[in-house]
Amino acid sequence: MCKPLTACGPVEPNPWPALWAMLVGFFMILVDATIVAVANPAIMAGLGSDYDTVIWVTSAYLLAYAVPLLLSGRLGDRFGPKNLYILGLAVFTAASLWCGLAGSIETLIAARVVQGVGAALLTPQTLSTITRIFPSERRGVALSVWGATAGMATLVGPLAGGVLVDGLGWQWIFFVNVPIGIVGLSLAVWLIPVLPTRSSRFDVLGVVLSGTGMFLIVFALQEGQSHQWTSWIWGMLAGGVGFMAAFVYWQHVNAANDPLIPLRIFRDRDFTLSNLGIATIGFVVNAMIVPVMFYAQAVCGLSPTRAALLTAPMAIATGVLAPWVGRIVDRSHPRPVIGFGFSVSAIALTWLSIEMTPVTPIWRLVLPLTAMGIGMAFIWSPLAATATRQLVPDLAGAGSGVYNTTRQVGSVLGSASIAAFMTSRIGVEMGSAGGPGGPRGDDAPTRLPDVLHEPFAAAMSHSTLLPAFVALFGVIAAMFLVDFGDRSDDDGHSVESDRPRPSALPEDATTAPAIAETTRHPAWRRTA
Questions:
Q1: What is the pLDDT of residue 434?
Q2: How far apart are CA 341 and CA 372, in angstroms?
């Protein structure tokens, strides 16, 4: 008898071409989440905008990206992840062209909203497809590549943005997506297999409740600092939490009628803790990069492009270690792996905070940043592997939607928290220089006089301790992971864990056709 998600018969599946095809679009949409930050001054000058408006070029994208994730994951279960991936990538590519051709800031923001919707349709399909086409004992290496792609995209964005803006102009941070998107669409049509779908009712009330709740929460977190956390921001945040509570209640009472998110997926403790972990690392990465970039430009005197190059060792370390970590994940309990990753990340950020002084040479900053990359290599893919280990095919889209939504909310929360904390520390360390009469705008730190380098460096140093502290929550979550599902012994043979798989389906009339259809697809066949 075959296990779920494992192909049977003489044909050995080869899911790697499908993974490489999906990573083209996945990498592109994650880069776009951070690439615009470097281009904001050029966009302001080119379109005649002010700072309060230009930040919506990024905020609108992130908002449109985060809100539909729960829905798009479930739509992949219903209409097929390949179809949703292709639709999302097509929308994203067309919107990228629209962004580059935008002649006003309002048009650019509208195009970014459409881009975000395309990204939301695409993202959950990557993880759900990996869950369905890779057997659990081989999934670790695949997810290490997926996780390393996510981690590296976050770091490559500012660097790519600096190079393109300096060399070709801000429009090219969007135009470059068009040929890449066309190649990605061709690869997706050719290589991604058509997976079985299941007809289901459409949970309209669940979509409305989750969409409204996510919009209110993400909007409030994004805009809270710029509006000094006034009462209406807190009201939106409370309203969003209320809508999400109503959504959870509705999913509970509607459990028998195919809800948007079946709450039974949270019975798996490892899935729940992995979501806490991915929210934590999303917070940490987005929070740590802001004070580091400000410090590098204001205190070290680096250009935006050279400041972004500081993150290159972090990305390289994550990418180089990814395959090796993936093999460890396939064989080992996730507790020490993920715990090690979060511990190294917390130590590296604390180390970085100590080094952030006006007289520190650049090479001493590279060391803790490289250590941070090593830590992240032991976080991204092990978390994804642990979260999806027990997911069955009919819940892959829902689980992927929840996982990606949690990551995005953690990222937004990290950005909002570091902005508030940096403002507080600048006020303490710089006094009036950090208040209303202090520097303003994206290029303000480059205009700091030498006398302010010491207090500004201290403010950025203290700010870096916030993500270091939050990383400890990842260590705590890792301590309570209880299962590592299927393991592989030294000879590569599958070994079942002692604990039963609560969500595993027997091979019945539902599972067998899925296995048969998967193994028949031409993208699976190995060449001789």
A1: 45
A2: 9
